[in-house]
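FW: tagging you since you asked about this chain on Friday. Here's the raw sequence from the shared folder, copied in full. Didn't touch anything.
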Amino acid sequence: MRAVVLRSTGGPEVLTIEEVADPLVGASEVLVDVAATALNRADLLQRMGLYPDPRGVRPEIPGLEFAGTVAACGPRVTLWQPGDRVMGIEAGGGYATRIAVHERQVMRIPDHLSTVDAAAIPEVFLTAWDALVVQGGLTSGRWALVHAGASGVGTAAIQICRAIGARVAVTCSTGKAGLCLELGADVVLERSPHDWQAEAATVVPGGFDVILDVIGGDEVARNLAAVARRGTIVQVGTMGGGSTAVNVGVLMTKRVTWIGTTLRARPIEEKVALTQRFAAEILPLFETGRLRPVIDSQFPLDEVAAAHQRMAANANAGKILLTM
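HL: got it, structure written out here
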């Protein structure tokens, strides 16, 4: 198979495409012919040597999600058969023309979606739903704040909030507010150099019940100021830095719950459970059109370096796809 292989770490130039052996298929795994994968910030960190594949797989092949067609099934597989269109998450290996995944870690692609477009769903929608609803406890009528509203996770989070009847404010950079409003954001707060927290205090004076933060850094202090009493902050990224000063007194007096989370490092049992629950509760919303993948751009696999450059420049609004 063809795959993007990391033989060294550094800039986009280290992303090389090679012919490598097809993955071995376990008894409970399916082999998927990948039509497309999608970029995530974790891929850029992995390329720089800051977020290696936790499985210790060598050589490292980036890619946390995929969409394609089942090519073969292990002897214990009962849920799928060759020809089925599926999508899912994995700890790595998505930047390749084939991937082997546990059968319960994949989901069927809704009939009306193309296989390529489906690659924009798994990682960001699972992340946003898990952070806001499963861990954050967001329910109808409550307020969420989502940072980087035009990112992959952000565009998924806005739609999920609207689908469950919650209200949502987002932060985003200049020029991306229109997309956030189109997707259903109630309030758009422009980020740096503007003081979004002061504006938020006038719009949602009681504070936000759940905050989904992919930024970290300087936003931590503003999150603590903006969160409601007994509210929840779910940290799913640190694009703005992983270290910052924290006023523990505010954390205590507001009785804030602050959760750190990732999907990649979780045991397969947890990923399977989350995938199966998502398939039962959220996947039907794609079939009715209440949720949809938001795609910024598509690049062929051979142009993977250009795709990374686009994400690194923060030029995308929605998901960047790599097609095989």
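FW: The first helix runs from residue 41 to 47.
HL: agreed, and The CA atoms of residues 105 and 272 lie 5 Å apart.
FW: great, closing this out.
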